[in-house]
Backbone:
């Protein structure tokens, strides 16, 4: 890493990796120097598309590349523990896609590896880095709507997804909760912290993953959060935060909003809109910029996406899955007694 440029490696070559790379190449202080895939032809095609010098047909070569400062891990989340751990142990800093891991145990292991090797680690929770979401949080923290009483957020896709799709594959951590529900849960915990009590219900697929899940989170303060996710029904992607002195409504796409409206008792509504200079609402540049800012500052984690917050969200996701009866094959294998 130099003062001029942070050198990135991209691990995996799917759609989210391509979207991230497209935003990185537009940042003057970022450089993609290597890409890796378990399929060499995919790595080469990705490298040609984005003008990347080195294409590796295995993860190990990317992790060992001393010219890479930080690796963006964009595999399916069932592979996050292995991929991110490999890179951290090899001395690379890591930005790991959401959901951070399959479960809390894996998340705690990754955090421990990062701290053992004195490496930077952050979950790619781009919502937390979004300028308009950060503005919303600042208003809530400053008491603009008083004490938070309720939070509502939903994220659902219409589907239908065939049984062979990754969203319905238990081996890949399928289901609505980890892929989509992580956003409503993270939004609620961004504003209220980790809940004290959790109740949940779900509709499960024949494969045993959740097709849709609803959860009620509660805090000793009296605050409640209602969160919903689905892969069998498209929702508005809305969010609302109600406080003792007003509320904030996010009309759609709460995790990358174009606008939100602040309603305060006795005052006219105030609309806050995204700054066009921040790029399109789908941009992933803000999380990349936060990683690079932290690396230049010598920080090992981001105050915007702190590791303790990531672990708290994973604890909640584990608890919800426990309530609704979703367990993945790797977890079931761990629970089985050793043969005599």
Residues:
């Amino acid at each position: 890493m130099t003062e001029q440029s942070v050198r990135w490696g991209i691990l995996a070559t799917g759609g989210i990796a391509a979207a991230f790379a497209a935003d990185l190449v537009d940042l003057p202080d970022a450089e993609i120097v290597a890409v890796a895939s378990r399929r060499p032809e995919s790595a080469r095609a990705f490298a040609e598309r984005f003008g990347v010098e080195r294409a590796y047909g295995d993860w190990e070569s990317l992790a060992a590349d001393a010219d890479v400062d930080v690796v963006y891990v964009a595999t399916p989340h069932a592979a996050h523990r292995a991929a991110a751990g490999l890179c951290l142990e090899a001395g690379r800093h890591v930005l790991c896609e959401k959901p951070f891991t399959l479960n809390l145990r894996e998340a705690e292991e990754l955090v421990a590896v990062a701290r053992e090797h004195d490496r930077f680690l952050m979950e790619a929770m781009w919502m937390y880095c979004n300028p308009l979401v950060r503005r919303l949080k600042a208003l809530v923290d400053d008491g603009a709507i008083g004490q938070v009483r309720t939070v509502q957020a939903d994220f659902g896709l219409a589907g239908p997804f065939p049984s062979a799709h990754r969203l319905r594959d238990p081996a890949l951590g399928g289901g609505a909760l980890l892929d989509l529900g992580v956003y409503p849960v993270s939004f609620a915990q961004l504003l209220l912290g980790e809940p004290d009590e959790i109740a949940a219900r779900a509709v499960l697929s024949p494969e045993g993953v959740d097709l849709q899940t609803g959860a009620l989170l509660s805090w000793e303060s009296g605050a409640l959060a209602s969160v919903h996710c689905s892969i069998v029904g498209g929702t508005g992607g809305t969010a609302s935060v109600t406080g003792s002195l007003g509320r904030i409504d996010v009309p759609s796409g709460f995790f990358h909003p174009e606008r939100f409206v602040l309603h305060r008792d006795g005052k006219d509504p105030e609309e806050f809109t995204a700054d066009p200079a921040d790029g399109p609402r789908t941009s992933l540049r803000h999380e990349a910029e936060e990683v690079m800012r932290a690396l230049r500052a010598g920080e090992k984690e981001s105050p915007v996406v702190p590791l303790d917050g990531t672990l708290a969200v994973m604890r909640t996701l584990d608890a919800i899955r426990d309530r609704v009866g979703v367990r993945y094959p790797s977890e079931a294998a761990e629970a089985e007694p050793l043969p005599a």
Remarks:
- DSSP finds eleven helices and 14 strands in the chain.
- Residues 335-340 have pLDDT under 50 and may be disordered.
